Amino acid sequence: MRSNGKSVTKTVSSYCYQCVAGPDLMKIDIQDGVPVQVRPNGAAAAVHPAHGKVCVKAFGLIQKTNNPHRVQTPMIRTNPKKGRGEDPGFRPATWDEALELICGKLNEAQAKGKMDESGFPRIAASFGGGGTPTVYMGTFPAFLKAWGAVDMSFGSGQGVKCYHSEHLYGELWHRAFTVSPDTPLVEMIISLGANVEASGGVCGVRRHADARDRGVKRVQVEPHLSITGACSAEWVPIRPKTDPAFMFALVHVLLHEAGRERLDLPFLKAMTSSPYLVAPNGFFLRDPDTQKPLIWDLNSGRAVPFDTEGTDPALEGDFTVSGLEVGPDDVEWRHDGAVCQPSFAHLVAHVKEYSPEWAADICDVKAQVIRKTALDFLDHAHVGETMVVDGREMPFRPVAISLGKTVCNGWGGFECVWARTVMAVLIGGLEVPGGTLGTTVRLNRPADNRWSSVVPGPDGFMNYPMNPTKKGDWKETPTSRHSHQTLIPLAANSPWSQALGPTHLAWMAQKKGFEHLPKPTQPDVWFVYRTNPVISFWETGAVEEAIANFPFTVCFAYTHDETNHMADVLLPECTDLEGLQLIRIGGSKYVEQFWDHQGFALRDPAAEPMGEARDFTWIATQLAKGTGLLAEYNTAINKGAAGIRLFGEKYDFSLEPETEHSVEEIWDASCRAGSAELTDGAESQGLDYFREHGFRTAPFSRERWYLYPAMIEQGLRFELPYQERLLRIGQELGARLHEKGITWWDRQLGEYEALPHYQDLPGLWEHAQEEAYDVKIADYPFWLLTARSMQYSWGGNAGIQMIHEVASNVAGHGGMLMNPAAARKLGLAEGDRVEIASPTGTTKGAVILRQGIRPDTVLMIGQFDHWKTPFAKDLKTPSMNALTPMSLELTDATGSGADLVRVSVRKLEAGA
Amino acid sequence: MTRYAIVADLNRCVGCQTCTAACKHANATAPGVQWRKVLDFETGEFPDVSRAFVPVGCMHCDEPSCMEVCPSTATGKRDDGIVTIDYDICIGCAYCAVACPYQARYRVDEPSAAYGGGKKMRHETAREDPARLGVAQKCTLCFDVIDDGLEKGLVPGKDMAATPVCVASCIAGALHMGDLDDPDSNVSQLLNEKRHFRMHEELGNGPNIVYLYDGQIEDTSVQDKAPMVADPVGLAAVSPKPQTSWDWRAAANFMAGGAGTGLFMMTMLASLFAPVIWGAVFAALVLVGGGLFCVLLEIGRRWRSMNVFRNARTSWMTREAMMAAPYFAFGGLAWLTGWTALGWLAAIFALAFLYCQARILRAAKGIPAWRQPQIVPLILATGFAEGAGLLASAVGIALLAGWTQTTLGMALGGTLAVLVAVRFGAWKQYRRALGVTGAPVQTFEVLDGPRSGLALAGQAAIAVLAIYGALGLPLAGLALALAGLAAAGTGWLFKYTLITGAAYNQGFAVERMPARGAGESAPGIKPGWKTA
Which domain holds residue A813? Predict the structure, then answer.
């Protein structure tokens, strides 16, 4: 026996960032110019939280690179008719021809003015996978920056496929675009639908495995027994979309069944708005002179501004006080001798009715299970204990709550994220060791530093860049096709905001515009990269129709797929292993990616580009040149638009703006700037250094995993539990919209509550489905859910045979998972082909039986139903995306929907 | 000494298949071939359900049943415990595949491409290894990585560059590899700390993948054996499946080999009462030869089939081949020369050949229907009954034609009746024993159905016909011919069914479902099995 590892002739360093839980570092072995093997990067073991490992998806990159189905030359459409049934008639073209065509369109758009008659950007772009395309598109962001206004509102799945409410409310409350337990220290996790073992990446998997070894208690609350449920100490099969009731009951137990002394009262008093007195109209009672919120000081027996030194704030009780109340649009009420209670007391009263017994029927979970879960949380919270991290003493609270997709999306997301964060502050476990942490910021600035994003705002809280709602400031005329600034104050307006906005509104408007908003238009040019919204969005039939109507679509194409079937030009770019790029690694970012180091990693090409594929940076440079934007483009690169600013106080590796630079020149300058940044200008090694070493890091203090020190330093409080600011902006937004005549967003305005109340969410979904489609919900007896798959999620790899092969080892892939008792009632057996239908569409697949799913629920893992993508189109794998309606009624105030729909299941004849 | 083992911590494993993919890369295995993979188990009933992920592959057993059966000595075991395959020696008979109770072995006969249609990708072309076609293949424990690492002074299991890729790539830190003979090694320490089991421990192979399932080694309470669950929901992937290594060609060897050797022996026995029927001798030689030719059709590397003679020490397949040679030599000479003594000599080797066939099945540990000890008398009895049946049918036809005396027919009829009864008794013994040890549900379904060929009614009818023939009554020849053909036919049907239809493999089982974090361990499962 011998290994068939013929001699490896070269090994290069690279990274895998196919999912939002990356990047991870790897080595690629090359044999006679052909990449043949992916390996973990052992050299990174000392700096990477998962010891330099990469997950199964990375191993698919060999097939991805060498895939015979790749588009290998630029292609131009010859059939002007677009649609699923139309043959695009793509013909091969030269790069010169393709670029000339694209630049021609761009220059036409530029000549007409970058905004169209409706005020929307003429150029639009859509990227997939939670921002991960950025680390594969080289300097293309610099080209977009040089161009100016670009509409990113045509989503590829975000709003439903992401953790939407967590992104927005998480950033508001603790700079937590993504939230994570402090997994290296945590003792107990309540996980509602979070599937970290499938979607937490290599670091998540490793850290949670370590936690299990330590004996962590994780309770997985989810309708099916996911991978994460399998890896948890307990599984609680909750009824779909009733998570807010479960969460409210947890809060109830802490406030009404546990002794007050078990809560972290000092934290509540000093670090939250709990003591702030609430005036009769629901807004804080304020000091008339300073407008600061008042608290009741038990020491002096009077109301004083919240930041008065030496106070002992009351958390409960009725206090007769005088002061000023400021409502929406600066309306003021003066109160003399009004009886007010602290915010905390309002919270206590608010959750009184939400007992475990109340939640039990709603959630189909026994009351004692809910109660025990809450009390276990408390038992593990270590209230009163501290620990020292890098020399700083902080509270130690090793309990956390994780929320998954669909729990965080659509109606109910606000309630769950709020209750989760309230649970954390009740035991003083927000942003402290062991507790609930944010890991990245995307809406606040700067995006690469959570501490720096902690800026004082009103009332002792952090600032938040809300889209304005006050008269005169409100963005009455939207500048994006989904109106994120007009409708969603919390979406802010960072470079990420458009992608977060209510992206389905952009698609919905293509079918029928929204009253009193500008006439929906199509972009003159639409760029698409690493996304396939015809498969990955929801109500995909409608998306497909909209895309077919776009006048000029440019797809950076890997293989033919369902979206680029409608494209006018296909451009083959170097894939993951063929392109050159330097990215930031480490620090604290995204899912479970908080490191003890930070720095940069190189994606060093492992192969010559296949066919005529070109490096994305070269393409971006040519587009800049062809549109006369070379100087702006180079300047954008210099300023960091491609990931690394090329100059600092002690160094300057800026590119000459007027010159066309080669791909290697650009990234050499980036490498030099990266070296200088990490060494405070002392060193400046370039591309050669990174080619030799693969990555370079400097220590990142663990103290910076936690926001607590930054909050303490600036004397700030977490804006919890009472949402006075949201209450105000909600009323202001309502006034603005009504002034404009917009009433179709009224349901969403109801979400702006100071303390969220429970809504019957399953009923809401059922009602919406019945009303919109004139159907009887009884004809659709199952809840259809989806779940992430580590093998597929974000990878765009449904066409990779190896991935399909190994994913098939994991139950649930390739069909529709259902409970055997439910199947028996329908006369279904394992492997039977069925048609699953909702009013918006159908999908077909094989029945997969498992006991680990509720009888009222069926599940389809991943996103399939391909009809064009090679290999994937032959898989006969069902997907829920065609079945989930884009519905205004099912859109929450943050602009998200949820992967949830009622469906029917019908047996098909054999062979169907 | 060194004894490398893998310890898989089921509390840590998340079933991500990174090890599966890494192994496929490192070893450039063909599409569908997974030397390492992770199984997905589920136990219990909603809502009390457990789910566990269980890495499997070659267990590099202490007593590898694959190595014992290998006729060519291609399968070996290194001093460090790694079970190896020499691709240059292996004849591709796949005996090892049916002898492995862990379904760890594969045989790929043709070059294949992930995207089919002959469109091999660049890396597939670059890494294809023709030596691996048509031979057995399985996990190598990346011995080349280990050896390279050792040469560099690295420690396998500790240093990534000296560690099998499945372990080195494991993102959960669930897979560990090291030396069990070193009490201070990582794996020894883990086994000292945590409760563990080995899969199919009762088969005695001494597998060297050990599964950790709980963190409390001090709790030494005896756990129940994994319960057999006949009809598990959603566990088709881990339940026993029909073996695909041996098809009709292998079955033909057992059918023709048994019948041929039986016929030879019965012919010689009949010569005690009448002249030797040399036509039957010739037929017996042809039958055995035909069966072996079918085997030749089945093996992956026909031109090196003579390597079958390399392992007389342990392989019953080698021994079968070794018995075949003198059988043909003496039998052929006897037929050519008409020397009865040579015929008797050949008959002894025929018996030995038949015994070897029975032991071949007995040693195939991967197939519960074959490895039963009672398979040996059953196969022997079947061979005799088939041989007697063929001879009786020939004599019966001769009787009808008036070519021979009645007394031979009467003696053969009586003998056939006795042999059919003995065979039926052996079958019932075998079936009873299988019911006690348990077997895959489908094995029982097939054996208890009409395809077994050995049901009471049919066998009784054959015996009655044979006795009628033995009585020398009118049409005794017809009765004898019919009884003989039916005895042979039902024997063939049984063996064809045994080798193909009833031959479900062992499947997989877990003794215990793992405790996850602060959770508790739950009973395991042996899916797709039952007793009785």
Answer: 761-907
